[in-house]
Write a structure and sequence with these properties.
This protein has 497 residues and is of the alpha/beta class. It has helices at 3-47, 52-71, 116-119, 133-136, 140-156, 207-217, 230-241, 297-304, 313-318, 323-338, 357-364, 372-382, 389-420, 441-445, 447-461, 463-466, 477-488, and strands at residues 81-82, 94-102, 106-115, 121-130, 170-176, 180-184, 187-190, 222-228, 245-251, 255-262, 278-282, 434-439, 469-473. The chain has 2 domains: 51-80 and 243-475, Hexokinase, domain 1 (3-Layer(aba) Sandwich); 84-228, ATPase, nucleotide binding domain (Nucleotidyltransferase, domain 5), CATH 3.30.420.40.
Length: 497
């Protein structure tokens, strides 16, 4: 063999070896990066574990906080607000009742015709309106005059079949979704405004009084018979169609729970004992926290960067406002430390709250063989293209970890309520049936979340008690529920006795 031929052969062999080495190193690097990604996910999964024993500790802590909140104002992270709702709908209510649902920049007015025990809800209709920005920062008269004017238009369109009997005033249930210190079933002092509102002269005023004065100025002959929040409305709506409803839970953008309590078990109640002997308690359970909650570094960072650090911890782990954001934060770390989306971290992935829980739900529910929905969501929302199937599977796995933890913690919260009510242990003659009224977009639309919540609660209760628990979807508690509470607290009830 000629010398030149030998040199070429040696150089060729060296080149092949170098290329092979580079390929091996590249594969090892990719393997190392993927291993790092998997390690991050496993670490997160381990910190999110909610074994039954831990959930029972969370439930016990919830029960303890409930007792403390009922004992004194400020005695617990749970406000345990007395709602003055001592008379829930029975299904016997009849007549026409109105509702006003003021939850933010939009509000609704509703008209509901009730047909008594045989008729149920005979008819319902509603209208919606937006509040101009100028009225969100003005004075109380201007705001309530605008609302009353819209209500007047709605009443003016009332058909003949809805007209009140002669001598009877129309009655309204008012859902006011801002902080209020309630002083009776139809009165409450405005504590502060949120959601972009700043009506300083209304703070400290009776919200029902402000509304009724505005209605009088606008010629609306109507009385506010019930002041409620959406969770209490959900309980009322559920009770109207299911007599065994005793608990209501909202799982939507935020979360809250309400339940029926014996007045004798409310030390801070100093009023007369109502005929029913019961009172609905608005827990405001989103503010619950306990050392038993499986908080991770991502939860702590989210909380620290929020508008209300140290508050609403339970809500930040379980509700629709935050689940997608927790997912984004874990994906961001995976992108930074493992490069699963390329050498550069996608800029959109750094934007807080860009990944919403409905998008997370869509990815979690993706049943296509190539996880096309996951790929489309990553591309459309985060501008991440050409993801591998392996990467998409990782995203789905993360969705499952976040949703499962949230749903199981919500189940533990419900267990805490059942423990407080004495419905967590078998009774002689069989368990007492308990219907739980549920509402909120997270519960309604995130199927995996809903199934985990319901199954987890039944597992925690055990086989015998599980048969006594029924979940029902009580839709539109903030509207129909308020109208029903106006009916069950009507000033004309005594006329029927």
């Amino acid at each position: 063999m000629k010398k030149s031929t030998v040199v070429v052969a040696v150089v060729g062999a060296a080149t092949v070896c170098a290329v092979a080495t580079l390929i091996v190193k590249h594969r090892m690097h990719k393997s190392s990066k993927w291993g790092r990604a998997v390690a991050i996910i496993r670490e997160f999964e381990e910190k999110c574990v909610t074994k039954d024993s831990k959930l029972k500790q969370v439930a016990d802590a919830m029960t303890v906080e409930m007792h403390a909140g009922l004992a004194s104002e400020g005695g617990s992270k749970l406000k345990m607000l007395i709602t003055y709702v001592d008379n829930l709908p029975t299904g016997d209510e009849d007549g026409v009742f109105y509702a006003l649902d003021l939850g933010g920049t939009n509000f609704r007015v509703l008209r509901v015709q009730l047909g008594g025990k045989e008729g149920g809800i005979v008819h319902q209709e509603f209208a919606e309106a937006s509040i101009p920005e100028s009225l969100m920062v003005g004075n109380s008269d201007a705001l309530f005059d605008y609302i009353a004017a819209e209500l007047a238009k709605f009443v003016a369109a009332e058909e003949e079949k809805f007209h009140q009997p002669l001598g009877k005033q129309r009655e309204l249930g008012f859902t006011f979704s801002f902080p209020v210190m309630q002083t009776s079933i139809n009165s409450g002092t405005i504590m502060r405004w949120t959601k972009g509102f700043s009506i300083d002269d209304a703070v400290g005023q009776d919200v029902v009084g402000e509304l009724e004065k505005a209605m009088k100025r606008k010629g609306v002959d109507m009385r506010v018979s019930a002041l409620v929040n959406d969770t209490v409305g959900t309980l009322a709506g559920g009770k109207y169609t299911h007599k065994d409803v005793a608990v209501a839970v909202i799982l939507g953008t935020g979360t809250n729970a309400a339940y029926v309590e014996r007045v004798q078990a409310i030390p801070k109640w100093h009023g007369p004992v109502p005929k029913s002997g019961e009172m609905v308690i608005n827990m405001e359970w989103g503010n619950f926290r306990s050392s038993h909650l499986p908080l991770t570094e991502y939860d702590h960072a989210l909380d620290n960067e929020s508008l209300n650090p140290g508050e609403q911890i339970f809500e930040k782990m379980t509700s629709g406002m935050y689940l997608g954001e927790i997912l984004r934060r874990v994906l961001l770390r995976v992108a930074e430390e493992a490069g699963v989306f390329g050498d550069e971290v996608p800029p959109k992935l750094k934007e807080a709250f860009i990944l919403r829980t409905p998008d997370m739900s869509a990815m979690h529910h993706d049943s296509s063989s190539d996880l096309r929905v996951v790929g489309d969501k990553l591309k459309d929302i985060l501008e991440i293209s050409n993801t591998s199937l392996k990467t998409r599977r990782l995203v789905v796995e993360l969705c499952n970890i976040v949703a499962t933890r949230g749903a199981r913690l919500a189940a533990a919260g419900v267990l805490g309520i059942l423990k407080k009510m004495g419905r967590d242990t078998p009774r002689q003659g069989g368990p007492e049936k308990t219907v739980i009224a549920m509402d909120g977009g997270l519960y309604e639309h995130y199927t995996e979340y809903r199934m985990v919540l319901e199954n987890s609660l039944k597992e925690l209760l055990g086989e015998e008690l599980a048969t006594s628990i029924v979940f029902v979807h009580s839709n539109d508690g903030s509207g129909i529920g308020a109208a029903l509470l106006a009916a069950s607290h009507s000033m004309y009830l005594e006329d029927k006795s």
